[in-house]
Automatic annotation (TrEMBL):
PANTHER family: 26S PROTEASOME REGULATORY SUBUNIT
UniProt biased composition (Polar residues): 10-27
InterPro entries: 26S_Proteasome_ATPase, AAA+_ATPase, ATPase_AAA_core, P-loop_NTPase
One Pfam family from the record: AAA
Organism domain of life: Bacteria
AAA+ ATPase domain span: 80-213
Protein name as catalogued: ATP-binding protein
Organism: Anaerovibrio slackiae
Record-stated family: Belongs to the AAA ATPase family.
Cross-referenced SUPFAM superfamilies: P-loop containing nucleoside triphosphate hydrolases (SSF52540)
Gene Ontology molecular function terms on file: ATP binding; ATP hydrolysis activity
Ranges for region Disordered: 1-27
Keywords from the UniProt entry: ATP-binding, Nucleotide-binding
Length: 313
């Protein structure tokens, strides 16, 4: 009796899983639009970067005047799209800026990651990309491709299998949709060097996000240390001594130091705790950089070995 119940349960789970898989395959992913979480006042960036963001945001605001009233829709008929690419190190505020731009335009935002688009079924990924663009169009939302290098990377030149063909098909569909899209679109990446040159040409503006300078670090520390939190943190010292931190690093450092102080039942959050956390963050980042260099050298070495083997044959 028990075995029969177990078999029935397994069968029900299998049927339900199959049903979900069929539904996912037939209908594809569901893309949700949301209200922007940040405003331009919320983001702390160097003035030149913020000015560039305002430039592109105002481009969308003034497009009617430029294209319709001044007649540039005739001479620049394929330039109504404003595609911008926010690139730079992780944690420097690219995603926050995308939300802030959407907020400035008074529109919702549709966030797309490659994981939302990718499908194990042949031909489904391009369909999912089309669906993302159509959803943005139907909802009049700003479409934001996060980690865009995953979908805008270079096309495969020497195709050797079905996967290579599928990758190139996906890139071609993305190019076509980008050509036809006449609205605001934002990309963000930590690895702009991986972009295909065809996509680079079709993106109107590329805005580089750097690690925060001294003034921005001071503002970030001030922003993430709440006035209710008792502390003896020396913001100027932290801002002077540690210049390799991103905004995200500073946010995490305050949080981790606060939890450590709470765990030790301290009366206030110690500056020493913050420094300890910061040093740990920087150590991890430096080790990660070394690993990336080793990996890059290994890949180059493999490519070199492959070429040498081809020459010998």
């Amino acid at each position: 009796m028990k075995r029969r119940e177990e078999n029935e349960t397994k069968s029900a789970v299998a049927n339900n899983t199959e049903s979900v898989q069929k539904n996912t395959r037939n209908n594809g992913p569901v893309f949700f639009v949301e209200e922007p979480k940040y405003t331009l006042d919320d983001i702390i960036l160097p003035s030149n970067v913020k000015e560039q963001i305002l430039d592109v945001a105002d481009y969308a605001h003034n497009s009617k005047v430029v294209f319709e009233d001044w007649g540039l829709e005739i001479t620049h008929k394929y330039s109504k799209r404003m595609g911008i690419n926010l690139y730079g190190p992780s944690g420097t505020g690219k995603t926050m800026a995308a939300h802030a731009i959407a907020n400035y335009l008074g529109r919702k935002i549709l966030i797309v990651n490659y994981a939302d688009l990718e499908s194990k079924y042949v031909g489904e990924t391009p369909k999912n990309i089309r669906k993302a663009f159509q959803t943005a169009k139907d909802t009049h939302s700003v479409i934001f491709f996060d980690e865009a290098d995953a979908i805008l990377s270079r096309r495969v030149t020497n195709m050797s299998n079905a996967t290579d063909v599928s990758v190139n098909q996906t890139r071609s569909v993305m190019l076509m949709l980008l050509n036809d899209y006449q609205d605001f679109i934002i990309f963000a990446t930590n690895f702009i060097e991986n972009f295909d040159s065809a996509f680079m040409r079709r993106i109107s503006r590329h805005i580089r996000f750097e690690l925060p300078d001294y003034e921005c670090r001071v503002k970030l520390w001030q922003n993430y240390i709440p006035y209710k939190m008792p502390n003896n943190i020396d913001i100027k010292k932290l801002s002077t001594d540690y210049d390799g931190l991103s905004g995200s690093d500073i946010e995490n450092a305050v949080l981790m130091a606060a939890f450590k102080s709470a765990r030790h039942r301290d009366r206030f959050v110690s500056h020493d705790y913050v420094e300890e956390v910061v040093q740990g963050i920087l150590k991890s980042k430096n080790e990660n950089k070394k690993e990336m260099v080793v990996t890059k050298k290994r890949v180059v070495s493999e490519e070199y070995a492959k070429k040498q083997m081809e020459k010998s044959n």
